[in-house]
Amino acid sequence: MDLTIEEAYKSMINFLEKYYQRTNSDDIGGLLGDIMLIDEGRTADPASWHDWIESVERMRMKSEK
């Protein structure tokens, strides 16, 4: 299964939302607030999108080895 970076990001959010619904973890709730997508696909905390892109690039590099 191939996902775009945005689809993978939305999947991660969905996973964390379900986890939050089960646990009501304040830490997860805070994280979800930061990574929430707002206007035009931007995140509430712009640094979180940058962190996501860096993470994707690291994983791609690992899988190429």
Please describe the structure with a list of short key phrases separated by commas or semicolons.
mainly alpha, 3 helices, 74% helix
- What is the end-to-end distance? 20 Å
Strand content range: under 5%
Backbone CA Rg = 13 Å
Give the mean pLDDT. 93
Count of extended strands: 0
Q: Low-confidence segments, ≥5 residues, pLDDT <50?
A: none
Q: Helicity, in percent?
A: over 70%
Question: What is the domain total for the residues?
Answer: 1
Please write the string of helix (H) and strand (E) elements. HHH
Shape: globular
Which class do the helix and strand fractions yield?
A: mainly alpha
- List the total number of helices: 3
Largest sheet composition: none
Write up this protein.
By secondary structure, the chain is mostly helical. It has one domain (5-63). 74% of the residues lie in helices and 0% in strands. Helix 1 (5-23) runs antiparallel to helix 2 (26-35). The longest helix has 19 residues, at 5-23. The mean pLDDT is 93.
